[in-house]
Amino acid sequence: MSVSVIRRIASPKKALTGIAVAAATAGMALSAAPAHAATAPSASQAQAIAHKMIPNAAQYQAFSNIVKHESGWNVSATNASSGAYGLVQALPGSKMASAGSDWKSNARTQIKWGLDYMNSRYGSPVAAWNFWQANGWY
Predict the structure, then answer these.
(1) For the range 29-32, what are the long-range contacts, defined as Cβ-Cβ under 8 Å and sequence gap of 24 or more?
(2) 62, 86, 89, 134: which has the highest count of C-beta atoms within 10 A?
(3) Share of the chain above pLDDT 90, in %
(4) Separation between Cα atoms, residue 119 and residue 53, nearest integer Å
(5) Are both 47 and 73 inside the same structural domain?
(6) In this structure, are 28 and 47 located in the same domain?
């Protein structure tokens, strides 16, 4: 290969500009995709996250019981009549933004918010589950 060919390959401003434009275009296309296009975590993935965040078996089981009843472990579950949203059916769902801006789709964020809610309102997930059993809501 001649030196002029190597120079053209190694440092062409035109090629770099083309790559930058292509990357920017791809980034713009990705950011323009609707939020619901991202794959929500499966129920088993959300449960695995919760298990890591709640190592105590009794507290995890109580949390899990509530989430099973409230959303079936569906991160994007929405109550058509009340508008409650997410794994723990926060009302309004936007309350969960205090745990993270990705509250609409991130199981970890929703679990964190739900745990904080259960601990602050009831003292623990077990106490929240006891209340849920007595009242059918928490």
Answers:
(1) none
(2) 86
(3) 70
(4) 14
(5) yes
(6) no
